[in-house]
Amino acid sequence: MNMPLFPLNHVVLFPGMVLPLHVFEPRYREMIDRCVAEQLPFGVLLIKEGREVGGDAIPHTVGTAARIVRVERMDDGRMNISAVGGQRFRVREFHSDQRYLTGTVEHYPIVNGGTRLADEIAHRVRPRLIEYVEMLGRASQQQLKLDRLPEDATTLAFMVAIAMQLGHTDKQALLELAGIPDMLARELYLLSRELLLLGHMVDTHADIMAMSMGPTGYILPN
């Protein structure tokens, strides 16, 4: 199928993820108007090279279709929208016959989510995710906790991908993995890596605070 495409910097959309967007460029306002009128999804792609505003950015070829669920229009034509990630897709060919980018895309299915291997890795991911959220809360000095984790391995894989505070390169690599076991295994590695980094941050902060305290526990003046 031919799909309108919205290349974005620093945003990787996953299935089930909510995406708020402020749309101000005329070409993308036109695109959103068309999607609303024809009830079409648009594809979100991470930019690989080039700029998001103006010019012709070169995006990655694996992205996620976004379904518009809310539109707030402003008097000057700008709009705020909310969209939700749906199915993954792969671009076969980009087209520039419209003011905005379009592409011939094919469905990129999510496979092996119901396998025993996916369930086994998911069982190892859950406690690491809980530990990660708790450590993230300590590092940011906030009270963070998870009330409940999905039993389904596919839902868990995308929840972890959305929740982790990662660079867009790591996020795009996760999105491009073919199967859920591959995604969960990669997330297990990333969780371990990020826990080490967060632990170092927390320990460093504690050391700095200890050095700034006097013998009676008062903070020493500068």
Description:
The chain has 222 residues and is an alpha+beta fold. It has 2 domains: 2-107, LON domain-like (Archaeosine Trna-guanine Transglycosylase, Chain: A, domain 4); 116-212, Methane Monooxygenase Hydroxylase, Chain G, domain 1, CATH 1.20.58.1480. Helices cover 41% and strands 26% of the residues. It has 5 helices and 7 strands. A 5-stranded mixed barrel has the order 1-3-5-6-7. Strand 3 (42-49) and strand 4 form a beta hairpin. Helix 2 packs parallel to helix 3 and helix 2 runs parallel beside helix 5 (180-212). The longest helix is centred in the C-terminal third of the chain and has 33 residues, at 180-212. The protein starts with a strand and ends in a 10-residue tail after the last helix. The relative contact order is 0.14.
